[in-house]
């Protein structure tokens, strides 16, 4: 719950932005960024190249050309505040200078050698990620990593590792044959590959590609009775997001996570935490689960998104007992763990685990929460709840927020949706305070523009 002090701070933040930053109110109130006209450079660019896209995305009619920090620019050179960070990817901001230097230096040294050989950067990344995980209070038995290229791949590896672990430890052929079921949760999102998609029980995603991989069952988030109904001696793993991102920014309770860990232990199942969106500093702790007691810790953690600050890289972090079940040839990847991705990730892990950045996330979260509470008080018929932790926040709307997303964009602010009628806010973790204030002011005026 937001206290009075935080609400006052949020109101003061908005007033400060409007009073001290020249033109903020006019900039936000007017639709200064309407979607480009038919004769614009953006429209012509889209018209030229759109026929060559497989139509898997619905996009507005602007073309983003460049970015820096917490801002992006379109082909018409119009500047937008970015509360999306590439869907929680650009945690250190766009065009991060140190990341750019690393990419240039490594690209002119060696980018790829394949996993048939060692390279120095992958080993350093593995070591640092394990050390920072334990140091942060997360995954107490973290030991080894499998590096890949995306979140879906990281979850795919976790699913395969869990099934191999069950077979490896089965006492006989009968157990080996039946202990393969994996439980996930309604409203979750784990990826688009067939294994990760099978763990994502949303008909919109699954129906066009059915049948799914067999052996998946689904429970209700934060509801142990539903877990008890589907977890059995046949369960080899349970996979869960500590904070459901795509599903609408719903955090799991500590009580639920403790009970889930206990249930997995009772039936000999692994516990997998999907921290692809909520991990790596986004909650104000290095991992979202770093705030949980060790008794709730997982056997596997999956990561991607912020890990490369925009460069494709994913990771599956496992305990020794899981790693012991995996043998040479069980899994692989052509690009995973390449020197370039590993060196970039090495830098980002160092930055995202730093106390100064994590303290900043928590402080900036208070600014957001206070400002959003102010907006909720101002538009109570439109905003019903604000959820989340750190800088993964969900603004629950009472109706479809598509018009709000458009109105915000037209006022120079990029926000995205999640779940059902939820506006998701996942900005760069180092977003400046004044940009937060400007963005909240733009959101305020977008709400006013749609008659919220």
How would you explain this protein's 3D organization?
The chain has 17 helices and 17 strands. By secondary structure, the chain is an alpha/beta fold. It folds into two domains: 4-32 and 66-70 and 81-94 and 356-449, Aspartate Aminotransferase, domain 1 (Alpha-Beta Complex); 110-353, Aspartate Aminotransferase, domain 2, CATH 3.40.640.10. Strands 4-12-11-10-7-5-6 form a seven-stranded mixed beta sheet, sandwiched between helices. Strands 1-2-3-15 form a four-stranded mixed beta sheet. Strands 13-14-17-16 form a four-stranded antiparallel beta sheet, covered by helices on one side. A hairpin with a 4-residue loop joins strand 2 and strand 3 (79-82). Helix 6 (120-135) packs parallel to helix 14, helix 15 packs parallel to helix 17 (433-449) and helix 16 (402-410) packs across helix 17 (433-449). It is globular and about 70 Å long. It starts with a helix and ends with a helix. Residues 1-28 have low confidence and may be disordered.
Beta-strand percentage? 15-25%
- Determine the N-to-C terminus distance: 22 Å
The CATH fourth-level homologous superfamily of the largest domain: Type I PLP-dependent aspartate aminotransferase-like (Major domain)
Radius of gyration, whole Å: 22 Å
Summarize this structure briefly.
With 452 residues, this protein is an alpha/beta fold. The protein has helices spanning 4-20, 24-29, 41-49, 85-88, 97-107, 120-135, 151-169, 173-178, 194-198, 203-206, 224-230, 254-267, 320-323, 339-352, 355-378, 402-410, 433-449; strands spanning 64-68, 71-74, 79-82, 142-148, 181-185, 216-219, 235-240, 243-244, 250-251, 270-274, 300-303, 314-319, 383-389, 392-397, 413-414, 416-418, 422-425.
């Amino acid at each position: 719950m937001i206290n009075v002090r935080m609400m006052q701070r949020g109101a003061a933040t908005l007033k400060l932005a409007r009073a001290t930053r020249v033109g903020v109110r006019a900039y936000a109130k007017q639709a200064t960024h309407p979607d480009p006209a038919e004769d614009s450079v953006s429209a012509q660019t889209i018209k030229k190249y759109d026929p060559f896209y497989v139509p898997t995305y619905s996009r507005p009619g602007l073309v983003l050309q460049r970015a820096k920090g917490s801002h992006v620019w379109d082909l018409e050179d119009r500047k937008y505040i970015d509360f999306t960070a590439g869907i929680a990817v650009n945690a250190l901001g766009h065009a991060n200078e140190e990341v750019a230097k690393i990419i240039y230096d490594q690209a002119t040294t060696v980018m790829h050698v394949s996993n048939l050989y060692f390279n120095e950067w992958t080993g350093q990344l593995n070591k640092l990620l394990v050390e920072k995980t334990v140091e942060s209070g997360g995954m107490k038995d973290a030991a080894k990593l499998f590096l890949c290229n995306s979140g879906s791949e990281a979850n795919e590896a976790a699913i395969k590792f869990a099934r191999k672990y069950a077979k490896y430890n089965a006492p006989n052929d009968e157990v080996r044959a039946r202990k393969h079921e994996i439980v996930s949760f309604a409203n979750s999102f784990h990826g688009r590959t067939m294994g990760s998609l099978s763990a994502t029980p949303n008909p919109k995603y699954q129906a066009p590609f059915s049948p799914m991989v067999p052996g998946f069952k689904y429970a209700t988030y934060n509801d142990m009775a539903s877990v008890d109904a589907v977890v059995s001696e046949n369960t080899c793993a349970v996979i869960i997001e500590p904070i459901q991102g795509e599903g609408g920014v719903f955090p799991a309770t500590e009580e639920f996570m403790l009970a889930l860990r206990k249930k997995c232990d009772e039936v000999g199942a692994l516990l997998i935490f999907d921290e692809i969106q909520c991990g790596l500093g986004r909650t104000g702790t290095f991992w979202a689960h770093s705030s949980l007691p060790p008794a709730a810790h997982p056997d596997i953690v999956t990561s991607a998104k912020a890990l490369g600050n925009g460069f494709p890289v994913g990771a599956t972090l496992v305990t020794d007992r899981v790693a012991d079940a995996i043998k040479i040839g069980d899994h692989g990847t052509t690009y995973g763990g390449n020197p370039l991705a590993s060196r970039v990730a090495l830098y980002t892990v160092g930055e995202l685990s730093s106390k100064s950045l994590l303290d900043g996330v928590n402080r900036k979260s208070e600014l957001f929460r206070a400002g959003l509470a102010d907006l909720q008080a101002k538009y109570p018929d439109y905003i019903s709840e604000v959820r989340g932790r750190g800088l993964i926040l969900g603004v629950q709307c009472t109706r479809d927020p598509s018009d709000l997303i458009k109105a915000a964009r037209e006022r120079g602010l990029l926000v995205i949706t999640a779940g059902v009628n939820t506006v998701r806010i996942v900005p760069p973790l180092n977003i400046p305070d004044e940009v937060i204030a400007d963005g909240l002011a733009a959101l305020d005026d977008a709400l006013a523009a749609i008659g919220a």
